[in-house]
Known about the structure:
The structure holds three protein chains of three kinds.
Chain A (H helix, E strand, L loop, with lengths): L6 H8 L7 E5 L7 H14 L4 E5 L7 H5 L7 E10 L9 H5 L5 E5 L2 E4 L8 H5 L5 E16 L2 E8 L6 H13 L7 E5 L6 H7 L4 E6 L3 H17 L3 E5 L8 H10 L3 E5 L4 H9 L3 H4 L4 H17 L2
Parallel strand pairs in A: 1-8, 1-9, 2-7, 2-8, 9-10, 10-11
Antiparallel strand pairs in A: 3-6, 4-5, 6-7
Helix pairs in contact in A: 2-12, 6-7, 8-9
Chain B lengths: L1 E6 L7 H12 L5 E5 L7 H5 L2 E8 L2 E6 L9 H5 L5 E2 L5 E2 L9 H5 L5 E6 L2 E8 L2 E8 L6 H19 L3 E5 L6 H7 L4 E6 L3 H16 L4 E5 L6 H13 L3 E5 L5 H7 L4 H4 L4 H19 L1
Parallel strand pairs in B: 1-10, 1-11, 2-9, 2-10, 11-12, 12-13
Antiparallel strand pairs in B: 3-8, 4-7, 5-6, 8-9
Chain C lengths: L1 E6 L17 E6 L4 E7 L9 H11 L4 E3 L5 H9 L3 E3 L7 H9 L42
Parallel strand pairs in C: 1-4, 4-5
Antiparallel strand pairs in C: 1-2, 2-3
Helix pairs in contact in C: 1-2
Amino acid sequence: MNSELRPEIIQAFFKTGFSTPVIGVTGGKGGVGKTTVAVNLAAAVAARGRKVALVDADVDAPNAAILLGLSLDNPVDVPVTQPVFDHQKCSDCKLCISACRLNSLFRPKEKTILLMGECNGCEACFLVCPSDAISRGRRSVGTTYKNTSGKLTLYTGELHPGLEESALVVTAVKKRVFAEADQFDCILIDTSPGTHCNVIDALKGATHVLAVTEPTPLGAHDLDLMLSLLDMFKVSRSIFINRADLPGRMNEIQDVAATHETQIETGLKLDEDLLASYVNGVPVVDAYPDSLAAKTFMALADNLIMEYLP
Amino acid sequence: MKEIVILSGKGGVGKSSLTAAVGHLLAEKYKVVLADTDVDAPNLDLVLGAELESTHGITASDKAFIDYDLCSRCMECVDVCRFSSIIGEDEPVIVSYSCEGCGACTLVCPLEAISIQPVENGKLNILNSGSIRVVAGELGIGESSSGRLVDVVKRRAREEAELMGSDLLLTDGPPGIGCPVIASLKGVDYAILVTEPTPSALSDLKRVVEVARFFKVPAGVVLNRAGLHGKSRNAVLSYLKENELDLLVEIPYDPLLPKALAQGGLAVSMYPDAPASVAIRELTKTVDAMLAGK
Amino acid sequence: MKLCITADGNSIESLTDSSFGRAPWLIIVDTEQYTVVEAIENSGVNASQGAGIAAAQTIADKGALGLLTGRVGPKAQAALQAAGVKIYENIGRCSVREALEQFNAGKYQESTGTAEYGSGCGSGKGGGRGSGGRGMGRGQGRRGGM
């Protein structure tokens, strides 16, 4: 992707239509603790009496509900449009076959069109059919859920295993929460690992992004990629160093941070309390409020509240 | 030539480290090619300390481009895009990171001002670590079509394996269960699924098992950091038993693993008697037996 | 009969190619005459996706009754079956002529496994995987807990 994005694209990235602040939690590397940070930060903000929406946009493997000990309720299907062919009306022009850039349409014999491959719902075939022989069917690619527990509402997006349409599920869960954004004092978004387009879609609308990393060579490498991505969109960001107990490369993290002119917000070691809360599905701020981990998250919440919440 | 992919569902459970370690040990006996298909964040070269031999740009993505000399600003394309990837007030602007290259916009443009063109969305890196050949894919920041890039990596890795007369292609797979994971699974003989004893990791393991089963790839499980949480460990073992999945090995939590990594080396080389290293060698023996048996 | 053989070049002396969707050439031979009816350069070589289905379309359009190649993926297999094209896999790495000789000598068995019609999606235990003959080929699989 061009490192110089057109201003319209950057503008569109930030435009939300509401004033509720959005905080993205992302990381690049898998397993650095994004969800742990997102969940605990959300719980901390809720503990301060603010209404917070937590969005689990890691649709391949959404785990926020597990860390919160919540079930997944209020399912809403995420559909993608699929063509349905009326062979009676088909004029055998074969325009649909050439219009489909995924080569998904197959004509075994005259006036018979079958959908044999992947279909992402682009509707190119609808556009070219001269005989009105294609109607819009649908296929489920995932589900979004919504659960409320006290001041915290969890929105989850989940892709059906075996499918490829993660992007559609991310868009759907964001749409669901953004439609209700005015109900909340703050929206937190937990993204998937990586720096690909689904991460960008998850972060769209972010007022500020927390880049979670760990002080290892892999962590530093992936933080660099993540910050480069955030640089493209000129998003306000700071760094959270998780697993600060791991040996070695803290100075590399600091170098990467300096290169991207990014502050290190705070850090946290993995201790027994945090681990226990993780495996038991209770946020550490609720399970062990006096622990160092809980205090770190409460302090982080206070900073973000002061900076971004009205 | 056999192909094995290492997946996990959950990120950060030790896929890359394990791939590197097993590859390193098997290279004592076999000609090994390693493929890094975690294209978002390829780390295999870092873990192995591999040297870059060559890098090529890869165009495995298609995007829409507007020729503004031809465009009449009718804005028909904006409404037709199902991926909200054309925006703009005065003139249409393609949001390239979310453009799927489907071409629907080209079909409605009255002046043929839009075309779909291939774009470079990543790099293919060839590296060497001792006798091991590494083929790694690297997705450009913010790019899409990671699945197609994985296809390119695998194809090249297979070519390298053929050239070398290699017996084994070992692939470090991506996290998650989406498109790039599916691409990494296609055509492999076996999937090693790495997990750890936590509820999150188990949940993700179940999802990746479903995907592996759907594509009819036989799979076995490695339990990393096995002693982390007893209750979760039991949950994992029960799940494996109920679903007739082989437990290939349990690797104990071992601080020497991250220590070796921080020093830029592999624990199996630097600390061969460490409990984790012993377990990894046991896993390697199991894989060796599989290769010999099949 | 007309048989399609995947190859590296456009003549009967060219080497066979074991991939289906990505083979450089699709050669239609007359199995009795040992002649090349038509050699088609495979545009699917550079296709982003669906190379197999695109190649299957070419074969169906040319009226070939059989396909001899290395391996056919599930989607292309379903397409070929829908078009009534018989599939023969595990082609030897030799000339197209030699492969045809082997074919006529009965060396290749027809691949008759049931293609997962539109497989690659709609996972979930049992339910939702379309079977051959239904129009849409996309299962509505729901995620089943394992």
